[in-house]
């Protein structure tokens, strides 16, 4: 198996991606090869620090680079030889089995649609995040690929999320909830009210509306929402956690006793930080496209990159795309409006 | 000035509301009277614990009660003598200057529209929350009154939020942001993309799209979004904070050193909890209606109730509704589609 990795993606540059890939290759003795895609000279320079990484690593040159702040769709149409486009082409041509990028998310989504296309029967793709909670965590989707959804899109997302939960997380007959602001079927906005009966009719194990508190208590394995809502809540949570940690740090620095307390609490706090950190969860799959594409956080560390490559290998191994295609085809009566 | 308070509202019953009102009356020597609305017998029984609260407290009997889990709009049409309807009628008749409830939010919104009506020129009401951040906090609206919004609704919300920020929080020429998933004008969903140019044309100090991180850093005084998004993010944040605190508690109980650390950190943690707690911020005003209605959290403690009554008195004092009516009238060209 061979995973193409966007070397130019992410806020912290080629060095971090190279470090992540080196880490993955060292820690995983499996039969997974990596091809780093991007500015070959810069990649080779960064790789020099790691000595020989063996025959499992290759480099593929791409002459262009899409910046984080560029308009994703426009840039992916204009820059035909970007690391993103080139990596996806390797996948399309069968020279790679998956693509991983910590780059401009909307460029990755647009280029994936352009190069790989959608699975038959799928109207819109979705990005699925694994979110930790009091139990074993759950899948939240869409977190940003499709900002304006039709009710049937949410049903397709639910099927995709269920495949993820079942095949990757090992949840048998996963419970699917509709992210909402109340438990009754009549609650919510037009979108959720129309999606509710469609989800009830689906062959999924639909457990009804789920509120945030229920998600954190572990009431569902999959929660569906439109990509605007999913993106906003995740970023809100991120901002809040950052604020809480910053506030704690400041308060602790101010009080000598608190400083001792914090030192004693350090293992606990760092365990908490690990639990909440996206780094551990290794990237979010873009589901509904004809291939495997894993999107890693723009602020990915080398650990996050290594975990994203591992996630990609598992999506290839369990043939998630084919499973999604099977289900969306089987249930495509729902998808026809 | 006289504030009508729904005695039957909130998850923890008449006792908590009575305690909150007693607390308010004791701590505030100002010229504010309170009338508790609901089951007179139960109210008097609960009030007995507080001895004489003087002539500033009255009780108004209401024979019905709307439960937290009832369908708000239906219940408020059916139960004409609920504590909510009766309290709002007192306000409408001029026998009270404001109404405060920790009851069923959608019932309070529906009854307010029914009894008080909207301000001239306002199409939809919005509930505004004060949210703490790294600076002085900001106003987020709508957090649940209007789940499906038109672009012009967001413009009206922005005006209402600006009045709140200016008159109540003392922010001169408040900065208004559009809650979004990216900073560029082209980011977001159909609603935010259409609202953006309208906000630019408005006479508000519109600072563009704002992401969660920016809100927590203090980049805006007011952030606008539709009521579905606002409600989901607040509940998500609440669920997350509860999970973090629960996790910390569990970990601390497990490790003796951590236990000592936690004891030393206690003042810091309780200060943090205070900073984040809605109790401190005293209820969220329902804006755009012809009157003053403050909605308190369903899980309100007596402190939260006392602060909600204080908030109501400030909204009356600064005549916020008239100020909103003035501005939405002045800018009603925007409100016409």
Tally of DSSP helical segments of chain A: 13
- Structure class of chain A: alpha/beta
Assigned CATH architecture of the largest domain in chain A: 3-Layer(aba) Sandwich
Report the CATH superfamily of the largest domain in chain A: Isopropylmalate Dehydrogenase
**Topology order of chain A in helix (H) and strand (E) letters:** EHEHEHHEHEEHEHEHEHHEEHHH
Count the domains of chain A: 2
Strand fraction band of chain A?
15-25%
Say what the CATH topology of the largest domain in chain A is: Isopropylmalate Dehydrogenase
CATH class of the largest domain in chain A: Alpha Beta
Low-pLDDT stretches of chain A = none
Please report the total strand number of chain A as a whole number. Answer: 11
User: What gross morphology of chain A would you assign?
Assistant: globular
Largest sheet composition of chain A? 11 strands, mixed
Over the alpha carbons, how many angstroms does the gyration radius of chain A reach?
20 Å
Mean pLDDT of chain A: 90
Give the strand order of the largest sheet of chain A, numbering strands 1, 2, ... along the chain: 3-2-1-4-11-10-5-6-9-7-8
């Amino acid at each position: 198996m061979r995973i193409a990795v966007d070397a130019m993606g992410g806020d912290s540059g080629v060095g971090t991606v190279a470090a992540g890939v080196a880490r993955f290759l060292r820690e995983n003795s499996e039969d997974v090869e990596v091809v780093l895609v991007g500015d070959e000279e810069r990649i080779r320079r960064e790789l020099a620090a790691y000595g020989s990484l063996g025959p499992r690593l290759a480099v593929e040159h791409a002459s262009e680079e899409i910046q984080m702040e560029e308009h994703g769709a426009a840039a992916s149409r204009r820059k035909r030889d970007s690391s993103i486009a080139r990596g996806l082409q390797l996948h399309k041509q069968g020279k790679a089995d998956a693509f991983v990028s910590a780059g401009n998310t909307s460029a990755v989504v647009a280029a994936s649609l352009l190069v790989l296309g959608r699975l038959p029967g799928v109207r819109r793709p979705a990005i699925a995040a694994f979110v930790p909670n009091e139990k074993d965590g759950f899948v939240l989707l869409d977190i940003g690929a499709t900002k304006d959804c039709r009710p049937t899109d949410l049903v397709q997302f639910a099927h995709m999320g269920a495949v993820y939960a079942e095949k990757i997380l090992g949840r048998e007959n996963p419970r699917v909830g509709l992210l909402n602001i109340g438990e009754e079927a009549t609650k919510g906005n037009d979108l959720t009210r129309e999606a509710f009966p469609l989800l009830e009719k689906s062959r999924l194990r639909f457990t009804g509306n789920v509120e945030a508190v229920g998600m954190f208590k572990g009431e569902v394995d999959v929660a569906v929402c439109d990509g605007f809502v999913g993106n906003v809540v995740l970023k809100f949570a991120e901002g809040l956690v950052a604020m809480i940690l910053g506030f704690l740090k400041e308060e602790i620095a101010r009080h000598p006793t608190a400083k001792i307390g914090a030192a004693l609490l350090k293992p606990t706090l760092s365990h908490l930080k690990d639990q909440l950190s996206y780094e551990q969860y290794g990237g979010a799959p873009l589901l509904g496209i004809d291939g495997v594409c894993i999107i890693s956080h723009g602020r990915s560390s080398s650990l996050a990159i290594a975990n994203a490559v591992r996630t990609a290998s598992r999506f290839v191994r369990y043939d998630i795309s084919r499973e999604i295609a099977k289900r969306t085809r089987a249930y495509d009566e729902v998808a026809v409006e």
